[in-house]
Amino acid sequence: MRASILTTIFNCEKYVKTSVESALSQISEDFEVVIINDGSTDRTGKILDNFTDGRLKVVHCEKMGRARALNFGLGKCTAPYVAILDADDIALPQRLQVQIAYLDANTDIVLVGSRYRP
Predict the structure, then answer these.
(1) Regarding the domain delimited by 3-105, which CATH topology (the fold level of the hierarchy) does it fall under?
(2) I need a surface site. Which of 2, 5, 30, 44 has the fewest CB within 10 A?
């Protein structure tokens, strides 16, 4: 496993399906997607439970807040690289491939970001 995509979600039923689909659509092959459902009270949990992809790990929790949910989620990730994907964002298909290649080639760099597109 080269990378984990980590998402924390609270009441994001409008965007969660698209966001998770974008994470699972990476052209990299060696990754997992870890979703921490941070106590959602809308349909978010049901939407997440409809995914059947084996690369997806969904953990339903009581509300703990974003910072604690991220820290909890980091403990569920198994890869050396972790990419944070907000629940209302999408990841372009080449995101992991480009970021991993850059980090592998530049061992003095420990963090990369991505470009915002309106």
Answers:
(1) Spore Coat Polysaccharide Biosynthesis Protein SpsA; Chain A (3.90.550)
(2) 30
